[in-house]
Write a structure and sequence with these properties.
The protein is mainly alpha-helical and 153 residues long. 56% of the residues lie in helices and 0% in strands. It has helices at 4-10, 19-29, 58-66, 70-86, 96-113, 123-132, 134-138, 142-150. It starts with a helix and ends with a helix.
């Protein structure tokens, strides 16, 4: 459920975001999310889902490490940039710590997007980024470190 004012202040929807994710993000950074302990709906998947839940076996996980990283990283950066551009314009304006977190997320995705194509040259920049704590704060921690070290461009 959402209020009409959330819908209005979230528009226009950035191309890089799925509409319901963008609505949830703008609500969350504006401090307007309430959580209920009660389940109100069942999640179901169907052929028309834009995004679905997948369970990967070992081959699927290995396949993700062999998949080129360029498109995924471009998408993550585009989302972080759209959020960083729009966050200060939201009404009510997000708290300063939220704006800092959004800015840090964009910096993290920028750092990931410029990693060298040569795997041997990625170690130092990935380690530098790991030391900032942003892999754990804005991603999947060691899983994303491994992905950034081994995935082809």
């Amino acid at each position: 459920m959402l209020r009409r004012d959330l819908f209005e202040r979230s528009r226009p929807f950035p191309d890089a975001w799925v509409h319901d994710e963008w609505l949830a993000m703008t609500a969350a950074i504006g401090g307007g999310v309430d959580l209920l302990d009660e389940e109100l709906v069942d999640y179901r998947q169907h052929g028309g889902n834009q995004i679905g839940v997948t369970t990967l076996d070992i081959n699927g996980r290995a396949g993700r490490l062999r998949a080129p990283r360029t498109l995924r990283n471009e998408r993550l950066l585009a989302r972080a940039e759209a959020l960083a551009e729009r966050a200060p314009l939201l009404v009510p304006e997000p708290a300063p710590d939220v704006i800092r977190a959004v800015t840090e997320k964009r910096a993290h995705e920028q750092a990931r997007s410029v990693l060298p194509a040569a795997r041997m040259l990625r170690g130092v920049p990935v380690l530098r980024e790991w030391c900032t704590g942003r892999y754990s704060r804005f991603g999947r921690g060691a899983q994303d470190v491994l992905r950034d070290l081994v995935q082809p461009v």
